[in-house]
Design brief:
Strand 5, helix 7 and strand 6 form a beta-alpha-beta unit. The longest helix has 22 residues. The protein contains twelve helices and ten strands. The chain is globular, with a radius of gyration of 23 Å. Helix 7 crosses helix 12. It has 327 residues and is an alpha/beta fold.
Length: 327
């Protein structure tokens, strides 16, 4: 009888241990210690700035634990992204990603990770429009004139970017694809060199951040041809979009979001999504971001997953049709 009770006790203990082991991490209190947000871009850029804005507000909504931003730039965002891909899926390491990642899915063939295989989308953060500018010497003032000039002399007009595969480059390639034009791409190692040569007239055109170029536009150093969002930019409301100016359905923005390693408990993902959505829906924050040209985005994890998938396919078509190769 005693032996029977002893065996039953062992079985019960084993079952209890198994149940505890089977409980997802999210069933326990999360977070119980600081959470890292890995930004695979340099300090001071938009991704870094907006990651830090979130990190300041997330503790108030998620139990008071710190959210710490760590910058891990390099190899076109691959180094930092790979670090997150190899991290435990426990909700304590997150990735601040952008559409650089959706471009890289096709452009960078030998990555050590795959975005949709190794990550789960958590929440979008915001998007920012670009503006297509031209040096004052370029004899075009709007999209229709630009398309006409580019078709009359294919390859004669030039546009600068901060490098192959960057949002500025892809905005140009999407424009060429959708408008049926041939404009020569001049890649630089960073935005500053590209911007300097457009301002100096060595290159004709550039897709650049709205907030970066607004002062130059107002000073007459460049001409604003069009912005790249679906609707007009709050920063440059008098400048038409590419879509309304003759290339319907054109859209090329820089957008940011959060992802987590695949396998992160759904409860953690949902709590993070709710917290981010609440933060970016704050009216005061929205007004501050509008002055920076940033528009908040709110989606469920499932809707964001669909958005990421569609963005990967969008840029895959552009990369393949233009035969773009990574540097």
């Amino acid at each position: 009888m005693k032996r029977h009770l002893f065996v039953r006790s062992l079985l019960a203990a084993g079952c209890a241990a198994g149940l505890l082991h089977a409980l997802p991490a999210a069933a326990q209190a999360w977070p119980t210690h600081p959470v890292k947000i890995i930004v695979p871009f340099a300090v001071g850029g938009p991704a870094d700035v907006f990651a830090r804005a979130l990190a300041l507000k997330l503790p108030d909504l998620l139990g008071g634990q710190a959210f710490v931003v760590e910058n891990k730039p390099g190899a076109g965002a691959v180094i930092g992204t790979d670090q997150v891909a190899k991290s435990p899926p426990d909700g304590y390491t997150l990735l601040l990603m952008s559409n650089t990642h959706t471009v890289n899915e096709t452009l960078v063939a030998n990555k050590p990770y795959e975005l949709l295989r190794d990550f789960v989308p958590v929440a979008p953060i915001n998007y920012s429009d670009l503006v297509l500018v031209a040096h004052p010497s370029v004899p075009v003032n709007n999209i229709r004139e630009l398309v006409k000039a580019a078709k009359e002399k294919p390859g004669k007009l030039t546009y600068a970017s901060s490098g192959t595969g960057t949002p500025y480059h892809m905005a140009g390639e999407l424009f060429k694809s959708m408008s049926g034009t041939s404009i020569l791409h001049i890649p630089y190692k960073g935005s500053s060199g590209a911007r300097t040569d457009v301002l100096g007239g060595q290159v004709n055109l550039m897709f650049d951040a709205v907030t970066t170029m607004t002062e130059q536009i107002r000073a007459g150093k460049v001409k604003a041809i069009a912005t790249t969002g679906k609707t007009r930019s709050a920063v440059l409301p008098d400048v038409p979009t590419v879509g309304e100016s003759g290339v319907p359905n054109y859209e090329a923005t820089i957008w940011l979001g959060l992802m987590a390693p695949k396998g992160t408990p759904a409860d953690v993902v949902n709590r993070l999504n709710a917290a981010v959505s609440k933060i970016v829906s704050d009216r005061e924050l929205q007004q501050a971001w509008a002055r920076q040209g940033a528009v908040p985005m709110v989606m469920s994890p499932q809707a964001f997953d669909k958005y990421v998938n569609e963005d990967i396919e969008k840029w895959a078509k552009v990369i393949r049709s233009a035969h773009i190769k990574a540097d």
